[in-house]
């Protein structure tokens, strides 16, 4: 809870300060509700959620004084209601070995770091994890994964710079099988500048994985950077089409006062949200739960 509420402090401060400013000794009426909606929009909750939440607050005690704490409590409840249907724990089927997870997202969104965080969590639970450095065009991304792999005791499968990522996927699955790994996490490139190329590459990776194992990949995690704001909504659409995303991870919530974007995404897409990133360290990944997130941002 400490890590979560600390990580969401900037968003929480923006919202709670806004609510306090608006409702200290003032009535709940059309004007104050409009101001509340502005606060929610500025925190990036999106038009749909902001309007609905504001309406729900409006129903509470119209034309009467209302304490900021009461408004925050209603806000927390409403945010939780939006998030509840999408907050799903990430489940690994223990019977499927290796459980193959493809990690996608635009460059810089935090894919490699998220892979390291997940690997840290699972190796900590005694699972054997193999990492595939599928962002073969960026030597730095491969090196970064290798450093993490060494630190965490997870084998990293990598190819030559510019090597075919699908070929690497094939090798990584073979290696994970050979070594009896529980989980294979595969990094990918995220060059959104060339969408056709990216699409071809991801499709090929999926095709090769399926050839190696019919049900693979068993999960496709899309990593989204919370600091890009509403752009994240488009990224979900693009990657859903290209890669058949099964769930989301939202990173860098510690770096923004606009963490409400997660609410906007929940409302717009309905894709499961599994984890949130609240820092750069290996432990800064939290399972996503509606109630805690709502409480953390409503203060
Ligand atoms: P990739 O290109 O998608 O693999 O992105 P990286 O994993 O290399 O991350 C890009 C930058 O974001 C790095 O400097 C990471 O340390 C940083 N980063 C990743 N996740 C988080 C997070 O949850 N919080 C913060 N503050 N930084 C993060």
Word description of this protein:
By secondary structure, the protein is an alpha/beta fold. The chain is 52% helix and 12% strand. The protein is built from twelve helices and eight strands. The chain has helices at 2-7, 9-23, 30-42, 47-60, 68-83, 111-124, 139-152, 165-178, 195-212, 231-243, 261-269, 290-298; strands spanning 99-104, 129-132, 155-157, 183-186, 219-225, 247-251, 273-277, 285-287. Strands 3-2-4-1-5-6-7-8 form an eight-stranded mixed beta sheet, with helices on both faces. Strand 7 (273-277) and strand 8 form a beta hairpin. The radius of gyration is 21 Å and the shape is elongated. The model has no long low-confidence stretch (mean pLDDT 94).
How is the topology of this model organized?
Elements lengths: L1 H6 L1 H15 L6 H13 L4 H14 L7 H16 L15 E6 L6 H14 L4 E4 L6 H14 L2 E3 L7 H14 L4 E4 L8 H18 L6 E7 L5 H13 L3 E5 L9 H9 L3 E5 L7 E3 L2 H9 L1
This protein binds guanosine-5'-diphosphate.
The site of guanosine-5'-diphosphate has 19 residues, from helix 6.
């Amino acid at each position: 809870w400490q890590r979560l509420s600390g990580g969401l402090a900037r968003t929480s401060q923006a919202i709670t300060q806004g609510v306090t400013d608006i409702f200290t000794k003032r009535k709940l009426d059309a004007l104050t509700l409009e101001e509340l909606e502005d606060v929610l929009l500025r925190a990036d909750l999106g038009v749909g959620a902001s309007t609905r939440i504001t309406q729900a607050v409006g129903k509470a005690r119209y034309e009467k004084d209302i304490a900021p704490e009461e408004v925050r409590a209603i806000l927390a409840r409403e945010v939780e209601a939006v998030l509840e249907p999408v907050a799903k724990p990430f489940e690994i089927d223990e019977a499927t070995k290796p459980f193959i997870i493809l990690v996608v997202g635009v460059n810089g969104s935090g894919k490699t770091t998220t892979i390291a965080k997940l690997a840290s969590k699972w190796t900590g639970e005694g699972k054997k994890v193999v990492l595939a450095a599928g962002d073969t065009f960026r030597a730095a991304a491969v090196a970064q994964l290798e450093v993490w792999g060494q630190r965490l005791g997870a084998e990293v499968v990598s190819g030559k710079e510019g090597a075919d990522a699908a070929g690497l996927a094939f090798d990584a699955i073979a290696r994970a099988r050979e070594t009896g790994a529980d989980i294979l996490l595969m990094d990918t490139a995220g060059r959104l500048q060339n969408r056709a190329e990216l699409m071809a590459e991801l499709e090929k990776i999926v095709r090769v994985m399926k050839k190696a194992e019919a049900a693979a990949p068993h999960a496709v995690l899309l990593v989204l950077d919370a600091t890009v704001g509403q752009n994240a909504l488009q990224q979900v659409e693009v990657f859903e089409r290209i890669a058949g995303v099964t769930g989301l991870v939202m990173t860098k919530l510690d770096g923004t006062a606009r963490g409400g974007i997660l609410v906007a995404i929940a409302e717009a897409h309905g894709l499961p949200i599994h984890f949130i990133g609240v820092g750069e360290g290996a432990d800064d990944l939290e399972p996503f739960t509606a109630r805690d997130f709502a409480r953390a941002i409503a203060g």
